[in-house]
Amino acid sequence: MEADVRLKNTGLRGVKVADTKISYIDGENGILIYRGYRIEELAVRSSFMEIAFLLLEGTLPTKAELEQFNRNIVAARQVPDFVYDALKHLPKTASPMDVLQATVPLLGLADPELEVETKEANHRKATRLIGRVPVVIAAWHRIRNGEEPLPSDNTLPHAANFLWQLSGRKPDEEMARDLDICLVLHADHTFNASTFACREVVSTQAHMYAGVSAGVGALSGSLHGGANARVMEMLAEVEAQVKSEDDVAAWVKERLGRGKKIMGMGHAVYKTIDPRSTILKRMSQELGRKTGHENWYRLLTKIDEVAEKEFAGLGKANIKSNVDFYSGSVYSMMGIPIDLMTPVFAISRVAGWCAHIIEEKFAEAQGKPALYRPAAEYVGDYCGPIGCTFEPLEERKSASV
Questions:
Q1: pLDDT of the chain along its 401 residues, tens only?
Q2: Is 238 helix (H, G, I), strand (E, B) or coil?
């Protein structure tokens, strides 16, 4: 009898496919590093513009470098009119992530350096993408609601300008700073699914916009970018079903008993607390006090506490809250609609995607970057291991039973 050689689909867990200098995760100890710097320090002391520069250039910017980089980003906020025209012809019910994925190639067509493959040109393309992705997302939100896109306010920082273009209201400075911190936290996360998609695509020598479009597509999947939105849907269910915080424990136990997930808990890499979750938990508490949504924070912390104990009782002590568990409440308190939470993730992660694309295209260790071409184990067909005999159409019988 032939041995069963079928391989378990591991999702490439633990398989190292390339070197990177961009970010590092120690999942056992809950450590995330960008270019050598701990995320906890960067979230408190830096800005998203500094982090975008760090990821792309490899070092933190000087004051003069940061000012120039910010000017380049602001200049990139000018989106061509034909992109707005295209958005106005899309179905108003379209998913914002589908709209973003459709728009990235249009932005590529507008880029005069689309096919220029020098390192310098790719850095400029990255700058344009970082500047334009939030503008497109805000424009789509207004267009689908029957409103005209708003011009950029070039006096506002990156996160604040997005909130302005989204709502038409100048944002509170503290809230804009909170969003900026969120962008810092989401900017990169090593070889996650969307980043790997970007790198795999550009390994074919496709241009940066093709790679970023692939990243958007991967991020749109419910197992990657949509968890914070699903946390908010779960929270709405809890609010509707429980009468007090004391009822949360019963709700959690009943949900787990039915084999359903607690959204925003557990992670493919972290075996302890996600360091980003700790920062977002504090932010959720502070914004809750400020916006009158303390109940969201209280319910989430109760779910977090009870679920962690329940998982530990089932022998799963490494299932803890991840970056998505509290970020949904944070975004909602900022006035960001649930279906825009994953696009906001993309506003941040585009910096990391572009950094990885540049690293993939110009990898020093490889000399010439390698085309990704993994192998698979062929496990046969319905004819048996030696293959099928071709039969004329009129003689074929159905293979179905």
A1: 344 555 667 777 778 888 999 999 999 999 999 999 999 999 999 999 999 999 999 999 999 999 999 999 999 999 999 999 999 999 999 999 999 999 999 999 999 999 999 999 999 999 999 999 999 999 999 999 999 999 999 999 999 999 999 999 999 999 999 999 999 999 999 999 999 999 999 999 999 999 999 999 999 998 888 888 999 999 999 999 888 878 999 999 989 888 888 988 888 888 888 999 999 999 999 999 999 999 999 999 999 999 999 888 878 878 888 999 999 999 999 999 999 999 999 999 999 999 999 999 998 545 555 789 888 877 766 676 667 788 899 998 876 54
A2: helix
Among the listed residues 180, 274, 304, 324, the single catalytic one is 324
Burial class (CB in 10 A: 0-12, 13-18, 19+), 170: middle
Cα 154 to Cα 335: distance, rounded to the nearest angstrom: 21
Domain ranges of the chain: 23-225+337-361, 227-333
Question: Taking the domain 227-333, which CATH number applies?
Answer: 1.10.230.10
Could you give the C-alpha distances from 378 to 11, 373, 386, in angstroms and in order?
17, 15, 12
Q: Per the residue annotation, which of 180, 267, 274, 356 is the catalytic one?
A: 267
Whole-prediction pTM:
0.92
Torsion sign across C-alpha atoms 99, 167, 301, 278 = positive
CA 145 – CA 66 distance, rounded (Å) = 36
Phi, psi (degrees; rounded to nearest 5) at 273:
-65, 140
324 assigned to active site: yes
Q: What is the largest CA-CA distance in the chain?
A: 77
Instruction: Give the homologous superfamily in CATH for domain 23-225+337-361.
Output: Citrate Synthase, domain 1 (1.10.580.10)
Cβ(313)–Cβ(70) below 8 Å: no
